[in-house]
Amino acid sequence: MPRYLTSPQASRFYDHFGAKQDHQGYYEDAPLADLAAHLRFEQARHVFEYGCGTGRYAAQLLAEHIPETTTYAACDLSRTMIELAGRTLAPFGGRVVLWQNGEVPDFLPGKPPFDVILSSYVLDLLSPEAISEMLAESARSLRSGGQLGLVSLTHGSSFASRITSRIWALLAHLRPSLVGGCRPLRLVDFLDPDIWRVSYRKTIIRWTIPSEVLIATRL
Ligand SMILES: C[S@@+](CC[C@H](N)C(=O)[O-])C[C@H]1O[C@@H](n2cnc3c(N)ncnc32)[C@H](O)[C@@H]1O
After folding, report:
1. Pick the residue with more confidence: 137 or 19?
2. Is 2 within a domain?
3. Which of 130, 124, 139 is nearest to 213 (CA)?
4. Residue 114 in contact with ligand 1 by CB distance below 6 A
5. What's the structural domain count of the chain?
6. DSSP letter at 112?
7. 8 Å CB contact between 75 and 52
8. pLDDT tens digits, residue range 112-160?
9. 77 in ligand 1 pocket by Cβ < 6 Å?
10. How far is 36 from 64, CA to CA, in rounded Å?
11. 56, part of any domain
12. Closest Cα to atom 13 of ligand 1
């Protein structure tokens, strides 16, 4: 049985990890670039990110993909991450709203529905119950036809990536804090086909570490 970090444990881990998160680019950058290339940002007016980390990906999206008139809102469990993201995204001024969320997903209630919701390398550290809550909140907060874009660690598909993902899963089971609580999973297994239509799905392997990129449309 996999074990998960509790929200207070995850918050403490990422408060401490802080800017070191940006050193994961050697396996995260290619899947993140693939997600950015396949989301329809040009038609979006309101974008939301769940678990924005240091804001490094958001800065890239705002500079290169998200139209200048589009707003970007994001939350993160870690106070340190929100502070770092605030500094990284300051050049984008009033288009950006950031806040620290609590244990439950918190998607800026009272705002118009979002056109795009994204989350990278966050669902893979949540318990199955918390993943379902996050997806239910995404379904409530996205307009019909809006896109959910996800990236997560996943299971290997080649010999080397299978070994890496098995070792990773074992570490996550024995000592979740060693790997930031993250473990390989199959995102598609969590999506209810009555609510979501998967429009894009790809596994990208860098340095033998496999990531799943998935885009689903809210029906
Ligand atoms: C592995 S980092 C990924 C950060 C960023 N999305 C990226 O791709 O670089 C995981 C992030 O999720 C945040 N996080 C963990 N649990 C969360 C939760 N329940 N709600 C919101 N954010 C959470 C952490 O604080 C951390 O910033």
Report:
1. 137
2. no
3. 124
4. no
5. 1
6. P
7. yes
8. 799 999 999 999 999 999 999 999 999 999 999 999 999 999 999 999 9
9. yes
10. 9
11. yes
12. 51
Give the domain extent around 108: 7-218
Residue 1 domain-assigned?
Answer: no
Instruction: Pick the residue whose CA is nearest to atom 17 on ligand 1.
Output: 77
Give the residue from 95, 134, 133, 96 showing the smallest Cα distance to 117: 134
User: What is the per-residue pLDDT across 36-52, written as a single tens digit (0 to 9) for each?
Assistant: 999 999 999 999 999 99
State how beta strands 196-206 and 209-218 pair. Answer: antiparallel
Kindly state whether residue 134 falls inside one of the protein's structural domains. Answer: yes
With 0.85 as the threshold, say if the pTM is over it: yes
What's the token pair of residue 173?
A: 């089971």
Find, among 82, 80, 69, 71, the residue nearest to 13 by Cα: 80
Structure tokens at 177: 């804090």
- The CATH number of residue 186's host domain is 3.40.50.150
DSSP β-ladder status, 71-76 and 142-153: unpaired
Q: Is 14 in the pocket of ligand 1 (CB under 6 A)?
A: yes
